[in-house]
Amino acid sequence: MHILLVASAFNSLTQRVHAELRDRGHSVAVELALPDGALPDAVRRHAPHLVLAPMLRTAIPEEVWTAYPCLVVHPGPVGDRGPSSLDWAIHEGFDAWGVTVLQADAEMDAGDVWACVPCPVPEVAKSDLYRGEIADAALRAVLLAVDRFAEGTYVPLPQDPAGAADPRLRTRPYLDQGLRRIDWAEDSTRTVLRKLRAADSQPGVLDVLFGEEWYLHGGHPEDRLRGRPGELLATRAGAICRATADGAVWIPELRLRRLRGAPPTFRLPAVRALGDRLPPLPDRTPPRLPDAREHGWTDIRYREEGTVGFLSFSFPGGAMSTEQCRRLLDAYREACDRPTSVLVLGGARDFFSNGIHLNVIEAAADPAAESWANINAIDDLVEAVLTTTDRLTVAAVAGNAAAGGVMLALAADEVWCRSGAVLNPHYRLMGLYGSEYWTHTLPRRVGRAVAARLMSEALPVSAAGARRLGLVDRVVDRAPDAFAHEVGRLAARLAALPATAARITAKKAELDRLQSLTPLSGFRERELARMRETFDDPDAPYHALRRAFVHKKRPARTPPHLAPVAQTGPAPSAADVTAMAPDGVSPGPNH
């Protein structure tokens, strides 16, 4: 079929649905629902067999849903309605939820049901849950609904007009800041974490620090530090620790509330955001290879199981600043001093990496200089992985990855990817040539022709699609919470294989052969020359694209490369890149 995806943004779920429907042989186009009101004309131009809305903040116009079959993905079970479905589920502490595919109708979320799939609600942030359990359930529901529609005999089920049997399922209002606000004197750590997780990554929880209003983003429990409720206690890895009524929490990021007429604000690491406002606080930086059992929350941690080392990292939004890249490189080097034969890199769930940290770059006094520092820091990390010859390295890609984050994974000997992950192995939507040794690792894995196509098409790739292309070596078909355990089992088996020792021995000979023919330094120098030229040119599209991405500027139109009319369209032009930047560079967390 020709399926048209109508979405408010080309976010993570829309990208996943796009990639997986294409995997199944459908022709798929995207139209963004923009304020100009031209959606009905766009739909008529596509003449789709089916309109599908994976993430839509506004109603589908009546002239569209009366003329075309339109299915809407709602992140809640049958009977739940309203714009803050997932927020309420976390805010009220539900342990199970679901996703429903509905027929578009005059009343929001009230149409007939084509599919509904349940899912668990682990104690994780909303954006993590949305990209994990919710996305898995949504994909299953979408595929079921599409199959039912294609069969032509299925009759969707009407919702109960008398209301759901479960009184918790009802039409709920927008979850505003009055209900999200934290009472530091009364709220327990558990309550504070629930409020923070329900607001991640949008809209954040509005709070007051040093006489100013800030949005708090993210939250992790602290099990040792204590203080007066509301007091700032310490810093760690760019985060601040704040006391609750019975404990404390770590808050990784802040965003200053924008005043009327003031420039836009955006999320930054908490310590960086507060700057000189922050009084001297104890720095609780753990050792380079911190054990979570001894040091509590941190964004980098390490553990060993037999001869397998696990270097885990989890950075907000998958972005990696200069400082984060350097800390991860230090940890990697120390991990390579441990007596292991296999070293696994990656977090337990959610983002693997999206490359350089555009928000930190935008906030820098000299964004060009910070861009240069950041790209060199991540290149240093990738080089360290590429030149490791005394053990096998495995990139465990639990969640989405983009741009330099994909290339970081490709530096490893093997790439194991969770079945629900989406990869964006390209840079051009940010106006960049790219670095991280991609001109070596990407063609080496997929061939030059496919590498060129991936870079020019700038479209998302599913885990299964990446496996077929050779981007990844193994697809791990597990739920988000089960991925890390399965990776551990597979890594132990890899370490025990008789052939592993021979593979390790062969690594140094192969690297020596490569260095004698085409030294890695040459790839890096050529890539960085192109990047330096872009960074140092104030008129280069990258600078405007970065600002648009950081400030979440909506595109002026749907880029043509996303909206082919029942066929594959051309690669995006420079103008399309500009229009696409806020939504297409990295998978977005908003729903």
Description:
The protein is of the alpha/beta class. The protein is about 40% helix and about 20% strand. It folds into three domains: about 1-150, 3-Layer(aba) Sandwich (Rossmann fold), CATH 3.40.50.170; about 180-275, Methionyl-tRNA Fmet Formyltransferase, Chain A, domain 2; about 290-530, 2-enoyl-CoA Hydratase, Chain A, domain 1, CATH 3.90.226. The protein has 21 helices and 23 strands. α12 packs antiparallel against α19 (about 520-535) and α20 runs parallel beside α21. The chain is globular, with a radius of gyration of 24 Å. Residues about 565-590 have low confidence and may be disordered. GO terms for molecular function: catalytic activity. It comes from Streptomyces griseoruber. This is Hydrogenase maturation protein. InterPro entries: ClpP/crotonase-like_dom_sf (IPR029045), Enoyl-CoA_hydra/iso (IPR001753), Formyl_trans_C (IPR005793), Formyl_transf_N_sf (IPR036477), Formyl_transferase-like_C_sf (IPR011034), HoxX-like (IPR047180), NiFe-hyd_mat_HypX/HoxX (IPR009188).
